[in-house]
Amino acid sequence: MKIKTKIILFMGLVFLLHSCTKQEFEGPLIATIYGDFELIEPLIVTNKNPSFSSNEQVSFHCEFNKPIKWKITILGLSTSAFREITGFSNLIDSNMIVWKGGPSQVPFFAEEDCAIELSFENETDTLRDTITIVSAKNFDDGIWFEDFEGGIPSDGLVYYNNDGGSMTFSVANDNALLGNSYFNMGGRVNWDWVLGNIDLPINMSDVSQNSDDLYINLGILSDLQDLHTGQFINILISEETVTPFNDNPNNNASDLFEPTMEVYKMKVPVDWDDWQLKSFRYSDFEPVSPNNQDINFNMNPADIRAIRITCQACPSSSGNPVCPENFGKNVRTDIDHIIFTANSSLLDQ
Amino acid sequence: MKRNLLLLIVFVAVFLSDISLHAQISENIWFDGFSRSFFARDAVDKSTIDDTISARNTSNGYNLLDLNIHVNPIKDIEIFSQLRIRNSFGGFFGSGTEINVRQLKAKGIINEKIRFSVGDLFLKQSKFTLYNYDEELSGFENDMLKPYRDIIHYENFYTENRWRLQGIQTDFSFEFDRHIRSLSFDLFVTRPSGSRQINETTYSSDLLLSGGSVFSEINKRLTMSVNYINFFEVASSGTKNVSVRNPIYDMSLIHHFDNEKYRIEQKLQTGFSKRYWLHSQLDNGRSDSTSNDNKGMYFELDNKYIKKDSSLVLTLGYRYVDPNFRSAGAQTRRLNYINGNRNTIYPIYTNMSLIRPPSVFDLVSDDKLYNQELSSVLMVFNPIYSNILPYGDATPNRTGVYLNTIINNKKKVFLTKINTGFFKEVIGQGAAEKREFGFLKGAIKINFHQLLNWEKEISFSASSESEMTRRGGETVSSINLFSHQMNASLNAELVKKFFIQASYKQLNANGNEFFTQRDNYGKITYYTSTQIDQKDHMLSFGMLYKFRENVYANLHYNWWGLKFADQPFSDYKYNRLILILSVKL
Questions:
Q1: Which long-range contacts (CB under 8 A, 24 or more apart) does A123-126 make?
Q2: What residues contact residue B197 under an 8 Å CB cut-off, 6+ apart?
Q3: Do B271 and A20 touch (CB under 8 A)?
């Protein structure tokens, strides 16, 4: 019985030492979450005259009494460029919530006045302010960059189906996304999927980012006039390190995109009007030949050797009527400003 | 790789034995196992008009054989492997056929004193350290749904409330002639989850679970047990420098006395837990630090009165579990309601392609909804199906009393079970006011064949389970939730071993609750206010042929569905025809 008594005493001691929690409640207060919205600190915008070309940024601070969905909208009063930043919290922390001058989508901001608006879901309160952009952001600061300002790069290769109609695989200067030039890719090939492609060699051997931190950005121009509903772009990236880019000079395409090679792809349906800037994380690309056991698909940005951008559309002619409703329609998937960026997409840089 | 190697060893052992030691096969190698044929045809109910996208009916099924091979190379060692051959119906030239190793274990006794097991282990300690609590809705279920439950439990390795883990275990005991009568030890180290590649340069860490138990019979009436368990990550095995630590210390005393008619048992159990995340290998030579520290204790006093003729078992107890008590081994749920865990049958419904919320039928029949991995943080639960003790007896932030009764008629004409309890939160959640809980669950089975002295079985069973949750205080944070589950079933043996069965299951829930959202460290970050008003139903009719115990064929038709009121979901109704042939070899 002595042992029993000791054990009971010991257990009592344990009980006392680790006694009840002293808190009154856990988690945020429901009365606050579902109560009336109140502003605790007003919207503070740091740097009202940002020079984005010098890598300056604008920070936002605001505090309210409960977690809520909020949205900061920045509108360029001349260009109508806009940027939206959203979140769910009770604090907009100026260390975290910053704007570096990029829009949510094209057009880009210029040197102009901007209206800033902070709004909250299901609340009437809206906070407003203004800033003036002293110098607009440059969008050519990337790991690798091609803007066609000097025409098609001398080591690039262009191929298109010569039998197609109204084929436009050339540099144009009438409506560039940035700068003066862009690359036209379009035409009409009713009987086949591929209209043509542009292949560009890349050397990124100095890159240390992994595939999650590398982004491929490019501008794509289309129009909605008699839209070909089956048009898309395929972006192929080759990590073939043995074969030269133009191993066989007798064909018009690079030799780095064979099914036996380490090639990744991303399909982008194109169904909008005017320019859009699209960004893709490299790790979201898929292997072209995933079932080929001889290929080691270990994505490594430093091994990237070439990019191919292919203009494609589903065929419509009677010989191959996959999308007969598109018969005779022209395809338009023009591109500009191909840029690889590290850690975030171009517009978030 | 290691599995393949062990598999190879087992195969070599099997086939070499066959070639060279033919005479010893019967002594050294033996087989048992399990086989199941399953076919289900699911259909959208004819009355459904707002779903023209889903297939009107689908069917699927499979045959599987789990072949258990036991090899005894020497007297004190047994190697066990379970090979699964599964063939989905409709597979083309074997394309739907899978062969894999489901379990692999070696066990033995060293010097006739120390037992050991390596490989797949099924482990259980106390209810607060390592315990795989039953899933909701299963406690008072009728026999007709047992084939579904059997599949869920078998496929998810749920055996006697044990967690299936992989590692090494040993146990041994001593007997004494003075001071204490015996002392037993049980020790294990397991790896619930290995290091995994998250992306090209990031790897998660190895997750380990180790523990030990000491059990001592101090005298004829008094026994004591001490348990320790630690759930932790090994930071160096991955690229993350943040690793969880969750040790739990548990102690219990059991005192009992009995005479010819009854036995009285008292159990006093207490312990405490710690949980924190260790930040190691920090930059600039900074020393290790911890974050999100939690410490919590528990205490339970359980008194049992058992009549030796099995006609009455009465349990009365008190339990306190601190809001900060955390135990990965005891609080991990079988059912995880996390987003993305979708139903297997008709996961999308209506012409708006909504994600179909699970119903009672899914919880009863869908083995893919269930979880086999221990979780370091509290998992999401649905208050409709279990709001009072969603993490079993180890549910944190509860204090209260319970009373469980089992009353059996001596001739086994009536079998009844009544459980009741009143609990309260220790501290409020999002409000100073505390939730108050009450439950009353009762079941009765009437064996008419015993009453009328018939040879063939005819029985009726019914159960009713009610859960109430209330919280007063401010209107905005007040809670009033009531859920009620009802079961009724009839079992009639028409000819020898051939039964006709019918059952009805219904769950009603209405009121309001707040769904809690937690961050990666288990801290509450938000509450979503939810109005609840729904009715689940499941009507089944079918037949059963019992070849013998654990060998049966079932043919059932189920009508099931869910009806919401004032909620942004659409009601649904489905039917199912199911055939199960289950054979224990």
A1: A123/A37, A123/A68, A125/A37, A125/A39
A2: B203
A3: no
Model-level ipTM above the cut of 0.85: no
Q: How many CA atoms lie within 13 A of B571 on its CB side?
A: 17
CATH of domain A144-348: 2.60.120.260
End-to-end CA distance of chain B: 29
Chain A residues whose CB is inside 8 A of the B476 CB are 30-31, 34-35
DSSP type of residue A136 = P
Across the 585 residues of chain B, what is the mean pLDDT of every consecutive 10-residue run?
Answer: 45 41 60 94 85 85 94 92 89 74 94 93 94 88 86 93 95 89 94 78 85 92 94 86 92 92 93 91 79 91 92 94 94 85 87 86 91 92 92 94 92 90 94 94 92 89 94 91 94 92 94 91 90 92 91 93 76 93 91
Distance from C-alpha of A276 to C-alpha of B186, rounded to nearest angstrom: 65
CA separation for the pair B340, B454 (Å, rounded): 51
CATH number of A30-132: 2.60.40.2550
Contact A7 B271 (CB under 8 A): no
Question: Which residues are paired to B192 by β-bridges?
Answer: none
Task: Find out whether A120 and A68 touch, Cβ atoms under 8 Å.
Answer: yes
CA dist., res. B322 & res. A21, Å (int): 7
Reported as type and span, the H/E element at residue B65 is strand B57-74
Query: What is the 8-class DSSP label of residue A222?
Result: E
Is the domain covering B113-584 a CATH 1.20.1260 domain? no
Q: Can you tell me the distance from the alpha carbon of B272 to that of B297, in angstroms, rounded to the nearest whole number?
A: 4
**Beta bridge mates, A61:** A44
Whole-model pTM: value is: 0.76
Backbone angles phi, psi at B148, to 5 degrees: -60, -50
Under an 8 Å CB criterion, which residues of B touch A?
179-180, 199-201, 218, 222, 224, 249, 251, 253, 268, 270-272, 295-297, 299, 320, 322-324, 397, 426-432, 474, 476-477, 514, 516, 523-527, 529
Integer Cα distance of A97 and B408 in angstroms: 67
Q: Domain residue spans in chain A?
A: 30-132, 144-348
Please tell me the distance from the alpha carbon of residue A59 to that of residue A45, in angstroms, as a whole number.
Answer: 6
Cβ neighbours for A240, distance < 8 A, ≥ 6 positions apart: A256, A258, A261, A262, A263, A305, A306
Domain residue limits, chain B: 1-32+64-106, 113-584
